[in-house]
Design a protein that fits this description.
The complex is a heterodimer of chains A (about 280) and B (about 325).
Chain A: H1 13-16, H2 23-30, E1 52-53, E2 56-61, E3 64-69, E4 73-75, E5 78-81, E6 87-91, E7 94-101, H3 102-123, H4 129-141, H5 144-148, E8 153-160, E9 171-176, E10 182-185, E11 188-191, H6 195-205, H7 212-229, E12 245-250, E13 253-256, H8 259-280
Helix pairs in contact in A: 6-7, 7-8
Chain B: H1 9-25, E1 30-35, E2 38-44, E3 53-57, E4 60-66, H2 68-88, H3 96-113, E5 120-126, E6 135-139, E7 145-148, E8 151-154, H4 158-168, H5 175-187, E9 208-214, E10 222-225, H6 227-234, H7 240-245, H8 248-252, H9 306-317
Helix pairs in contact in B: 4-5
The chains are: A alpha+beta (about 280), B alpha+beta (about 325).
GO molecular function, one term (chain B): threonine-type endopeptidase activity
Function (chain B): Component of the proteasome core, a large protease complex with broad specificity involved in protein degradation.
Protein name (chain B): Proteasome subunit alpha
């Protein structure tokens, strides 16, 4: 492909080197320009020029873990997108949500998805959940320079641990900082501009061992609360039929809840809140 | 400096061909057949972890015979090429032709320029939206590439297997019948069967590595057929419960790490629902939405009970 040192077609030696199962490492040696972390950095902060994605929340429940994200991306004081998707399935057993510079973050998610699939195809088995969390940390670490110029990417990672010991929760959540620090969270976590409010909301509604329905309600409500107080987080939009994106990861794999399901939960929350308003009114 | 004895280019090439052919013919055979829903790979392979058949990309599979270390590095190169292309362009831009061409170039270059040619023969199979668009590329050690219409047989005594398949193969067979046809053809030369001095009436499931590219699956079409599913497919008459009971080692065998979840009771064994998500690495960005569940046996090596078979193999093979 890009390595034409042999002067003929066919696989270059890097391709035929059997050692190593990482797609990122392979790109680093054969096509480094495709990696987000290997580019020349802008000399001045450019954070204001690029869309930023905001609040992501994740919460465990009895059978797994849920992750939700609002649909707004902002650029300075503008709303640059109302329907951006910020939560993705990383593979069949894990999901990733992104906050920060949207362009780099989405590129990172794509790379991460290929990374996991690549490993699986080469090794013939899925990477362990901790392995996946560590690979993501390495990717964030490579972005530190860009983060210093206002292009920080902070993901939230959650997955179903197929190796979980009996009695421990199989749903696990990992949060990150811009330097690639990797922290396993207990119960629930949130990143992004509205995370303060979302976390406070979850603190009041989340309990260990919630059912899937109750946990979905908690997650969507925390996003509602974040949108209430944070201008960069979008609330449910019944007019355009835009609702938060929620993924559920359980023993059956990662599944995106349908818009209808999330809409029903969001509508319940809106009804509850307006009823409360009427009582007070 | 001493000059080597003169050898004509013709002689050199002939010697290399002979060397490669000898190496390949020592191995067991692999058959790749088209069937109604895609492409079926059948390899005679007693190992459950050293695969001869592999997934390359969403709709593309790989089968090889010959020297393991050589086709393994070619397999990895194919996966890398597919993933780099899919990542830098789009998933739809990865085709079997591109990968087969890269293999042909590499094999050809190695054959002409290096002392020792690769002792491998490869098949790159791509499953399309319809049976007409399925592609089977057969690649030989010298880099020649042939687009085969119905089936490809490679490895030791490929001629005999091909001859058998010519008589029995029909296009568009359902999976179980295509498997029966392919296994019967491999059995004619297999050392495991009674006809050739082995201890079995026909090919036992633990001697076979079977996988399909199923066009009905939404994204990653490749899926291994292992364990109870394979036994059931090989012998539809035998009730599955008996098949498992007859294999006590399967129950005791430790579950492989990261084993996918068990399917709901009542789901068909083996291939599962084509609408199922992949066991791992599946749902792409924005994908999903459908209420789906992964079935047991997929890309991960060794599904349920597979390890037990490997253990048992030591006894039966002796």
């Amino acid at each position: 492909m890009t390595d034409a040192s042999t002067g003929r077609s066919g696989f270059s030696p890097a391709y035929l080197d059997r050692v190593g199962s990482s797609f990122t490492d392979f790109l680093g040696s054969s096509a480094p320009d495709l990696l987000p972390g290997r580019r020349t950095l802008p000399a001045v902060p450019v954070g204001e020029l690029s869309p930023h994605a905001t609040t992501i929340v994740a919460a465990t429940y009895a059978g797994g873990v849920l992750m939700g994200g609002d649909r707004r991306a902002t650029m300075g004081n503008l709303i640059s997108s109302r329907d951006i998707e910020k939560v993705y399935a990383a593979d069949s057993w894990s999901v990733i949500g992104i906050a920060g510079a949207a362009g780099i973050a989405i590129e990172m998610v794509r790379l991460y998805q290929v990374e996991l699939e690549h490993y699986e195809k080469i090794e013939g088995m899925t990477m362990s959940l901790d392995g996946k969390a560590n690979r993501l940390a390495a990717m964030i670490r490579g972005n530190l320079g860009a983060a210093m110029q206002g292009l920080a990417v902070v993901p939230l990672f959650a997955g179903y641990d197929l190796d979980a010991a009996e009695g421990t929760s199989p749903g696990r959540i990992f949060s990150y900082d811009v330097t690639g620090g990797n922290y396993e969270e207990r119960g629930y976590a949130s990143v992004g501009s509205g995370s303060l409010f979302a976390k406070n909301s979850l603190k009041k509604t989340w309990r260990p061992g919630l059912s899937a329905e109750a946990a979905t309600h908690s997650v969507v409500e925390s996003l509602y609360d974040a949108a209430d107080d944070d201008s960069a987080t979008g609330g449910p939009d019944p007019v355009r039929r835009l609702y938060p994106i929620v993924y559920r990861v359980d023993a059956e794999g990662a599944v995106r809840l349908t818009d209808a399901e999330v809409a029903a939960v969001a509508d319940t929350i809106i009804t509850e809140r307006s009823a409360r308003q009427d009582e007070e009114g | 400096m001493t000059m080597p004895y003169y050898a004509s280019a013709e002689q050199v090439m002939r010697d290399r061909s002979e060397y490669a052919r000898k190496g390949i013919s020592r191995g067991r055979s692999v058959a790749v057949l088209t069937y109604a829903d895609g492409v079926l790979f059948i390899a005679e392979n007693p190992s459950s972890t050293l695969h001869k058949v592999s997934e390359l990309y969403d709709r593309i599979g790989f089968a090889a015979v010959g020297r393991y270390s050589e086709f393994e590095s070619l397999r990895v190169a194919g996966i890398r090429l597919a993933d780099v292309r899919g990542y830098s362009y789009n998933r739809r831009d990865v085709t079997g032709r591109v990968i087969a061409n890269a293999y042909a170039q590499t094999l050809g270059a190695v054959f002409t320029e290096q002392m020792k040619p690769y002792e491998v023969e490869l098949c790159v199979a791509e499953v399309g939206a319809t049976a007409e668009t399925d592609q089977l590329y057969r690649l030989t050690f010298d880099g020649s590439i042939v687009d085969e219409p119905d089936f490809v047989v490679m490895g030791g005594q490929a001629e005999a297997v091909t001859g058998h398949l010519r008589n029995t193969f029909r296009a568009g067979l359902p999976l179980a019948e295509a498997l029966a046809v392919g296994v019967a053809a491999l059995a004619t030369v297999s050392s495991a069967t009674a006809a050739n001095g082995g201890g079995h009436d026909r090919m036992p499931a633990e001697q076979l590595e079977v996988a399909v590219l199923d066009r009905r699956r939404p994204k990653r079409a490749f899926r291994r057929v292992v364990g109870a599913a394979l036994r059931t497919l090989l012998d539809p008459q035998a009730p599955e419960a008996d098949a498992v009971a007859a294999d006590p080692a399967a129950d005791e065998s430790p579950q492989p790490a990261h084993a996918p979840s068990r399917p709901e009771p009542g789901t068909p064994p083996g291939l599962g629902d084509p609408a199922d998500i992949d066991t791992a690495g599946g749902g792409g960005a924005g994908g999903g939405g459908a209420e789906v569940a992964p079935a047991t046996q997929d890309g991960t090596d060794g599904g349920t009970g597979n390890d037990g078979e490997a253990d048992r193999l030591g006894d039966t093979a002796s």
